[in-house]
Amino acid sequence: MSKDDWAVADAWMGLRLHWHGYVERVALAHAATREQRLKTEPDEVMVNPDEVAAWLEGTIKAASAPAPIKPAQAKGVAAEDARDFADSMQVWRSLASQGESVSTGVRGQIMVTAEAVSERECDCQIAAPGSVSRLSKGRRR
User: How confident is the prediction along the chain (141 residues), in pLDDT tens digits per residue?
Assistant: First the structure.
């Protein structure tokens, strides 16, 4: 995969989109529909494709088993997570930049979705690019 295959576009800006992040601890076959998700409070609100990619990466890393610890590592020293999500992040960033929703997950464990949402679809208050307010329990990235 080359970076040209997954270029980042500006389409999302003209559409005045932001993304609602949802984490479901279910297999894909049992995941909620877009309509069902949008009726619930998001776990996260993101305002640009970079935030979408970073949130997806962090959520997947937190939900999945950490990389194996090297035997030579000293006890009591925290292992650095060496898993590389750079290719996935480029794809997620590219899709979001085109105004798309992005779903991914860990087979049989978790479904993570960043739903692209327009102003018509929710009551988030977008005062300017990069600012969204609405959450009562979710977090703003």
Answer: 555 666 677 778 788 889 999 999 998 889 999 999 999 999 999 999 999 999 999 999 888 876 565 665 566 666 666 778 888 999 999 999 999 999 998 887 899 999 999 988 887 765 444 444 444 444 444
Distance CA 124, CA 133 (A): 6
Burial status of residue 122 (CB atoms within 10 A of its CB: 0-12, 13-18, 19 or more): middle
Beta bridge partners of 114: 21, 102
Number of domains in the chain: 1
Is residue 78, in this structure, part of any structural domain at all? no
Name the phi and psi angles at 116, rounded to 5: -70, 125
Give a yes or no: residue 126 inside a domain: yes
